[in-house]
Amino acid sequence: MGYTTKEKSVVDFCESKTESLSNWVRQVKNKSLTAKTKRKHDLRIIAILSHSLMRAESELVMKQRERARRWAQMQADLGLCNKEEENAREQREKIDSIWKNDLSGLDSFFRELDNVKPVVN
Known about the structure:
mainly alpha
């Protein structure tokens, strides 16, 4: 009996805002596609939907980047080490060293070719 509210934490609030924005972007994309495929185009509606979609997508990307930046900062503050990133970095270093060795070998091979004199008959 009566109205009760469920307490939400700040994290839940932020996630729900981002999620709702993402859902809104998806819905506007569908409406825009529907408006563009109609036999009688209403260019005013298409322009409004396109502009709204562009602004909403840029806002969503900005929020996602901010969240990723905050997450990386929190990991750095807590001293968490991401093993996947470390393994990927080591893998890139191995590949780079292999390429450097191969390229230096090719470089010396081409230098030797420059020193070879053609046989004149």
